[in-house]
Amino acid sequence: MKIKILLVEDDVNLGVVISDHLKSANYEVVCAEDGVEGLVKFNECDFNLCILDVMLPKLDGFSLAQDIRKVNTDIPILFLTAKSMTEDKIKGFEMGADDYLTKPFSIQEFQLRVKALLKRVLIEPKKKEELVYVIGSYTYDTENQILSLKDHPKTLTKKEAQILKLLYKHKNQVISREIILKGVWGQDDYFVGRSLDVFITKLRKYFSDDPRIIISNLHGVGFKFEIPE
């Protein structure tokens, strides 16, 4: 399985150049042009590395890194920035960066930084069974977004699948509303909050045939997806 990299860069031309070089090195690349789009795409797939521009529209790279770290504390993050001030680099590392590259940079140096970061990550090909979650009496095929109980499959919508993925990643522990809202919608205002509540109600209904599975709402905090181990 190819190494998958998330590239968030609002300079379209530079993004194309970087993406092409990464692809020529046999990496799979998913691109986004602003921080909100980047956060949503991050939660749609499993990545091995994030490359983030600092000066992004809608959600800057530092804030994006913070939100990514709320979901994944281990994934390497490389910042790209036109800023060379020591204070900015310090802030970048405080926000969760593993490395920092100042524009303009040579592609050779960029490729070496990427290789060095990926060496820190133990990458193993996913087995087919790892793409299927066992949730109590149910199985969930993550590739096809199919939730099954015995011989009764149900295809989830994209939003339902994204929310379930986040809940499962944090199973049997509390996950904040903010993480789900930003991860799925890229924002956490009142209206998307109401939408989340509707989707949570639907997921509860889908799992209602196994009373051991509980999606509890901790008022003002978030949700807890309780499933039997």
So how many helices?
8
Q: How many individual domains? A: 2
In order across it, which strands form the biggest sheet?
A: 2-1-3-4-5
Percent of residues in β-strands: 15-25%
The quaternary structure here is single chain
Order of helices and strands: EHEHEHEHEHEEEEHEHHEE
Low-confidence stretches: 124-129
**Shape assignment:** elongated
**Number of β-strand runs:** 12
Task: Please state the average pLDDT score.
Answer: 88
Query: What gyration radius follows from the Cα positions, in whole Å?
Result: 19 Å
Largest sheet: 5 strands, parallel
Class from helix and strand fractions: alpha/beta
CATH architecture type of the largest domain: 3-Layer(aba) Sandwich
CATH superfamily of the largest domain: Response regulator
Distance between the termini: 29 Å
CATH class of the largest domain: Alpha Beta
**Helix residue percentage:** 40-55%
CATH topology of the largest domain: Rossmann fold
What does this structure look like?
The chain is built from eight helices and twelve strands. It is of the alpha/beta class and 229 residues long. The chain has two domains: 116 residues, Response regulator (Rossmann fold, 3-Layer(aba) Sandwich); 98 residues, Arc Repressor Mutant, subunit A (Orthogonal Bundle), CATH 1.10.10.10. The strands form three sheets. Strands 2-1-3-4-5 form a five-stranded parallel beta sheet, sandwiched between helices. The protein has a four-stranded antiparallel beta sheet with strand order 6-7-8-9, with no helix packed on it. A three-stranded antiparallel beta sheet has the order 10-12-11. Helix 2 runs parallel beside helix 3 and helix 6 packs across helix 8. It is elongated and about 55 Å long. 27% of the residues are buried. About 3% of the residues have low confidence.
